[in-house]
Structures are given as structure tokens and as C-alpha cells.
């Protein structure tokens, strides 16, 4: 039986040659596309700004998202435990998500929920773009008044 994934290309694996060596529990955060490496015992992942992922907040299901810098802090990592993402869908929203609640985009399949299908189609369209093109095309986060309060 065909799934939605059979109609789209999978996200290519990050190029291991471009990963910047980091000190234990440190993160390099310079430009979009810079690897985010954590040395978390529970989840040793590498994320790139502009990478597509599945992210889960509280009681919500895993949702397609774009790793991006927080507009208030210009960082995509918080306390080495959370990554900042922008969720696909209308309207796009953004938030900090625990790294343990973030999965590589090719690890999950969407459910039949209509809003999730729309977000997944947007993510699949973004998958065809380079990391910088994804940021240019899909990153719409602006710092809100509530973001300023959390600085």
C-alpha cells in the first residue's frame, strides 16, 4: 500500500564532513546551515538551521517543523536542551521544543488529521529546497511582545 512518503523524496542525510567539532556539551551556532550538535546522553542528534524535523509540544501530536533561530534571541539552541522550530501550517507558529521531542523528518509518517496533512504538504515542498532557500521561503517568525518578555 502506498503512503504519502512514497510520492516524495526523503531528506538527504547531513554531510558529516561539514560538522564542526565541538567541545563536550557545547554548540556551534553561527549561520543558517551550521550544525547544531548536542552531547545529550538521551538523544545525541545533529540538527541544521533550515532542516525539516517532526517536533512535539505538550499534548499536541508530532508536527512538521523547520529548525530556525528564535527571532528574539537569534539562537536555535536554548540551554543545550531545547531547539527552536517554526511549525508548518496556517498560520505558521514557532516555539522552543525539548530535543527529546524532535525527530528527523524521515522517521515519522503523518496521521490523517486534515491540518496535519496541509502542514505535511508544505514541509514536503520545502524538502525540495536547499537549507538557505528553505529559510528564505518559509521562515516568517517575527519577535512578538510575548517573546520580548522571555529574553
At a glance:
The protein has 151 residues and is of the alpha+beta class.
Account of the protein in words:
This protein has 151 residues and is α+β, with helices and mostly antiparallel strands. It contains 3 helices and 8 strands, in the order E-E-E-E-E-E-E-E-H-H-H. Strands 3, 4, 5, 6, 7 and 8 form a 6-stranded antiparallel β-sheet that branches. A hairpin with an 8-residue loop joins strand 1 and strand 2. The termini are far apart.
* Derived structural class: alpha+beta
Identify the quaternary structure here: single chain
In percent, how much strand structure appears in the residues? 15-25%
Largest sheet: 6 strands, antiparallel
**Would you identify the regions where 5 or more consecutive residues have pLDDT less than 50?**
1-44
Q: For the residues shown, what is the average pLDDT?
A: 72
State the helical fraction.
Answer: 10-25%
Amino acid at each position: 500500500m502506498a503512503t504519502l512518503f512514497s510520492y516524495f523524496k526523503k531528506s538527504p542525510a547531513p554531510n558529516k564532513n561539514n560538522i564542526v567539532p565541538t567541545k563536550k556539551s557545547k554548540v556551534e551556532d553561527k549561520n543558517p546551515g551550521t550544525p547544531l550538535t548536542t552531547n545529550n546522553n538521551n538523544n545525541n542528534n545533529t540538527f541544521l538551521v533550515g532542516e525539516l524535523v517532526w517536533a512535539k509540544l505538550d499534548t499536541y501530536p508530532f508536527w512538521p517543523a523547520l529548525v530556525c533561530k528564535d527571532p528574539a534571541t537569534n539562537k536555535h539552541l536554548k540551554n543545550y536542551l531545547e531547539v527552536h522550530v517554526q511549525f508548518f501550517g496556517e498560520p505558521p507558529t514557532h516555539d522552543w521544543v525539548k530535543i527529546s521531542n524532535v525527530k528527523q523528518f524521515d522517521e515519522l509518517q503523518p496521521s490523517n488529521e486534515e491540518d496535519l496533512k496541509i502542514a505535511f504538504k508544505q514541509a514536503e515542498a520545502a524538502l525540495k529546497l536547499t537549507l538557505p532557500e528553505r529559510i528564505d521561503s518559509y521562515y516568517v517568525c517575527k519577535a512578538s511582545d510575548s517573546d520580548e518578555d522571555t529574553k
